[in-house]
Amino acid sequence: MAWIVRLLKSSLGAKYVMAITGIGLYLFLVGHVAGNLLLYFGQDAMNAYALGLRHLPYGLLWIARIGLVIFFGSHITAATYLTLGNQAARPVAYQSKRFMKASFASRTMPMSGFIVFLFLLYHLAHYTWRVVAFTGERVDSLGRDDVYSMVVAGFQQPLISGLYIVAMLVLGVHLHHGLSSLFQTLGLNNARYNTFFRRVFPLLGWVVVLAAASIPLSVMSGCIR
Amino acid sequence: MDLTLHVWRQKNGKDSGRLATYKAKNVSPDSSFLEMLDIVNQELIEKGEDAIAFDHDCREGICGSCSMVINGKAHGGQKGTTACQLHMRSFKDGDEIVIEPWRAKAFPVVKDLVVDRGAFDRIIQSGGFVSVSTGGVPDANATPVAKTSADFAMDAAECIGCGACVASCKNASAMLFVGAKVSHFANLPQGQPERMRRVLNMVEQMDAEGFGNCTNQFECEAACPKQISVRVIAQMNRDYLKASLTHEEAVPKT
């Protein structure tokens, strides 16, 4: 097993962890946002979906939750390990550093990642643990947990909606670099596909975060009520 | 041209160092950046002061000695150019120019603009040998090499080990350098027998030297005076993954 330790402790091994968990977390985001777009199909569709998630067979919900904790934990641990190494690698800063090619998104990955992490905690506290800005249990006409009304009530508060929208934009910047960078990390750099890796895949991140940001925007503008 | 230089002066590795300001007067636009420094140094010597120490050797862009960050960009930031081939016509009369050494934990400052790039030598040493038959000179085309493979290998072999990739990287990562050295042999038949062991050892040595980690910003590619592509880093990433998962070292029977 020594080879696994050697691999994970190496700079490249930690980078593979970043890339692979990054793919997993992005796929989770796609599913999570797609599921919540059911808000556009009304109260019944949303609440039925929420109830269905909670009653997934074979303990799938908990398997998914544990998987998410492992993926987020690995992604954050590897990021911290790599970032600390990067900071240690240049103890004396330049007086006049100017960048020629590095994009804004690529240079701010640790910061955007940290902001997304703080948002994640808030988001969990808000809608999962329901300890922040929670306005009481709601039940719909069929006796189901009324997730639809909870979300609408949450996003009718401009400050909370604003926070979600800003967080989604930060996540968009994070994914803009991450979704393209992970291919290079996994060794995929080929003139045939580089247009996809560098131009198309960053857009896939924006599609998802803008879809997510559309929910608070729709509630605020009264399209969802 | 008259210029104002802000040059990093540091007596030795223990000194904390500072930027010192010098005037460079009547600089010919046709002189190279290093010649301009020579002129400034000559004046300093005549005044009995300590000349600015900087590395230089070939002055034709192939040795990789001249290492300085000029106005925040390694080698001055002109595309595909080392500091020695940067000419003063790239600057304007009255310009202020900040000159600093490479900044990396793995490249300790020796004096002023001179840094110790021994870490690169140790990484190359860790790569070990390639197996080549000795004896009579083989026929020129005895070993077939595809044109594309030869091109990739030669592009990687262009690396002059100047360290601009490390200097320009936000994380002081050496992965363009190590990637170039890995790709150099990984694309040639002569490099195949030791290919897996080579990439494992070189990456391990790179980490041990205290370089940072690549975050795929590709700043190195823009700063590289030999314009080496980051595809060499992808090759290293690929080979290291494969080697980590599959390579078996021979274990002697006991």
CATH class of the largest domain in chain B: Mainly Alpha
- Report the mean per-residue pLDDT of chain B as an integer: 95
What would the principal axes of the Cα set say about the shape of chain B? elongated
The computed structural class of chain B is: alpha+beta
Cα Rg of chain B: 21 Å
Whole-number total of structural domains of chain B: 2
Q: For this entry, what is the oligomeric state of its chains? A: heterodimer
The most extensive interface, with participating residues per chain, is:
A-B, 42 and 51 residues
Largest sheet of chain B: 5 strands, mixed
Order of strands in the sheet with most strands of chain B: 2-1-5-3-4
Global mean pLDDT of chain A: 94
Question: What's the helix count of chain A?
Answer: 9
Question: What is the fold-level CATH name, i.e. the topology of the largest domain in chain B?
Answer: Fumarate Reductase Iron-sulfur Protein, Chain B, domain 2
| Overall number of structural domains of chain A | 1
Task: Indicate the percent of residues in helices of chain B.
Answer: 25-40%
- Write the element-wise H/E pattern of chain B from the N-terminal end onward: EEHEEEEEHHHHHHH
**The first-level CATH class name of chain A:** Mainly Alpha
Distance between the first and last residues' Cα of chain A: 55 Å
Describe this protein's structure.
The complex is a heterodimer of chains A (225) and B (254). Chain A has 225 residues and is an all-alpha fold. Chain A has one domain: Up-down Bundle (3 helical TM bundles of succinate and fumarate reductases). In chain A, 73% of the residues lie in helices and 0% in strands. Chain A has helices at 2-9, 11-36, 43-54, 60-89, 104-107, 109-128, 147-155, 158-185, 194-221. The longest helix of chain A is centred in the first third of the chain and has 30 residues, at 60-89. Chain A is globular and about 60 Å long. The mean pLDDT of chain A is 94. With 254 residues, chain B is of the alpha+beta class. Chain B folds into 2 domains: 3-110, Beta-grasp domain (Ubiquitin-like (UB roll), Roll); 117-246, Alpha-helical ferredoxin (Fumarate Reductase Iron-sulfur Protein, Chain B, domain 2, Orthogonal Bundle), CATH 1.10.1060.10. Chain B has a 5-stranded mixed sheet. In chain B, strands 6-7 form a two-stranded antiparallel sheet. In chain B, helix 3 runs antiparallel to helix 5. Chains A and B meet through helix 1, helix 2, helix 4 and helix 8 of A and helix 6, helix 7 and helix 8 of B.
